[in-house]
Amino acid sequence: MHRSVYLILFVKGLRTFVFGMVSVLTPIYLAMLGFSPIYVGASIFLVVLGNVSSNILLTWFGDVIGRRRLLIIFSLLTFVSGILLSSSSLYPPILALALFMGNISTTGTEAGPFQSIEVGVLPRFTGNRLGRVLGIYNLIGYT
Questions:
Q1: Average pLDDT, whole number, for the chain?
Q2: What is the pTM of this model?
């Protein structure tokens, strides 16, 4: 198999592990900051809305911008979101923006644009082993 397949599988495992932790810790973090359950619930809604928006942008502009560039852009947005979440804990509008653009998960699995891009790229590198590679990819994602 192509080296890129192993890299995609490795990154999928790391990202899913981190997303699983973040999906549990984000509501706890917001509650510990003193926000009401309604704000915590609205924050989870913003995360889901951000994931949906990212996937829609991916389908509209994926071929124009390029999947590699979009992976970099979405990764940078996730990085900036983490910085905003850790440094502006008492400013609800900034927290809301960070949750919207962060492409984090609410379920412990992945719902953002990363999975959509990777699954779209895997057939280029796998040849006749696509079914097996997608099975491994999903196994890593759900484990």
A1: 88
A2: 0.82
